[in-house]
Amino acid sequence: MDGSAPASPIPAGHPPVKPPKIGVLLANLGTPDGYDYWSMRRYLNEFLSDKRVIDYPSWKWQPLLQTIILTKRPFSSGANYKLIWNEELNESPLLTITKAQTAAIAAALSERHGAAVMVDFCMRYGNPSTASKVRAMVEAGCTKIVFFPLYPHYAGATSGTANDQFFRALMEEKRQPAARTVPEYFEHPLYIEALAGSVERAYAALDHRPDVLVASYHGMPKRYLTDGDPYHCQCQKTSRLLRERLGWEKGTIDTTFQSVFGPEEWLKPYTVEHVAGLAKQGKKRIAVMAPAFSADCIETLEEIQGEIQEAFLHAGGEVFTYIPCLNDDPAHVTALVAVIEENLAGWIGR
Q1: Would the pTM of this model clear 0.70, i.e. be above it?
Q2: Least confident of 33-37, 224-228, 243-247, 318-322
Q3: 294-306 as b/e, with b when 16 or more CB fall inside 10 Å?
Q4: Do residues 210 and 292 both lie within one domain?
Q5: 253-258 and 319-322 beta bridge pairing
Q6: Is residue 252 part of a domain?
């Protein structure tokens, strides 16, 4: 006898009580349901109405968004998505890759913790929604949830808004689970190791070594940096740590920023201008990678391999190599699992 009181029997008519679990909820940016006009309009409306993304006053921004931008942009964005769409599964590559990442992480955590941990994913914009997945985890018996925005670097427009949506979902729950949000992991040794491995494999497969490696990060208005967003500094540090891990000299990795939107100044140098400048300087062979993206998406599969590659070749460049995102590469999964395990500390035994 251990002296503990026996568990009280559940009275008749009491709702069923499920064994408690810990949820691990991965979150990525989002995806439209299709590349048709209305699917794109719904997705873009949700995305571009987010004050974390576009922080202009609603009275100024919404009339422009609703009457001009959402009238035209769904056509151009839909055409770009059509170029990369996974027609076999009728979904965007980001969704396909996120599913694969989730399955690999779930398998690794199941091997370590059995049924005590439930792994799933959600999207900040589009489907599956954050609220629907929080609800599913609560219904499955999760009394604790680790929420993991899949962004190596913190930005209000990425990790911040993903966390906002998670907290909104928790507000709808009668019985709120205990919650943890995973911080950025831009300098985690296993993340840097996974990046370095992807570069080494890509370079080993080439006949000629690129003159420069361009690390292209998603951009943001420069004003956000001066307002206190740490994103720019974290991107610079990732590039430095990657260069040091590779054992390369200074000047061999350039840090740039892509996906500029709107009239104000964004973080510089702009990738599309920088690669053209490299070609004009006689750098005829370059490689480009996107360390801020955990999965290949429209910004990498269409923008980098479309607009940015074209700018380089048009300016006189000869060989453009794109190094894919880490996606569900085993080294990446190992890094993500390690980050999750660190954030499970105290909640579950190793």
Answers
A1: yes
A2: 224-228
A3: bbbbbbbbbbbbe
A4: yes
A5: unpaired
A6: yes
**Cα 150 from Cα 328, distance rounded (Å):** 12
Distance, in Å, from the CA atom of 187 to the CA atom of 222, rounded to the nearest integer, reads 22
Tally of CB atoms within 10 A around 175: 6
Which CATH number belongs to the domain containing residue 73 in this structure? 3.40.50.1400
Largest CA distance in the chain: 81
Six token digits for residue 188: 């985690």
> Is residue 80 over pLDDT 60?
yes
Token pair of 185 as six digits: 């992991």
**51: Cβ–Cβ under 8 A, 6 or more apart, which residues?**
none
- CA angle, corner 95, sides to 343 and 28, nearest 5? 35
Cis peptide before 269 (omega within 30 of 0): yes
**Roughly what angle, to the nearest 10 degrees, separates helices 37-48 and 70-84?**
110
What is the count of structural domains for the chain? 2
Q: Are 29 and 297 in contact (CB under 8 A)?
A: yes
Average pLDDT value for residue range 69-73: 96
Which residues have CB under 8 Å from 281's CB, separation 6+? Answer: none
Tell me the C-alpha distance between 16 and 77, whole Å.
47
The whole domain housing 211 covers: 189-322
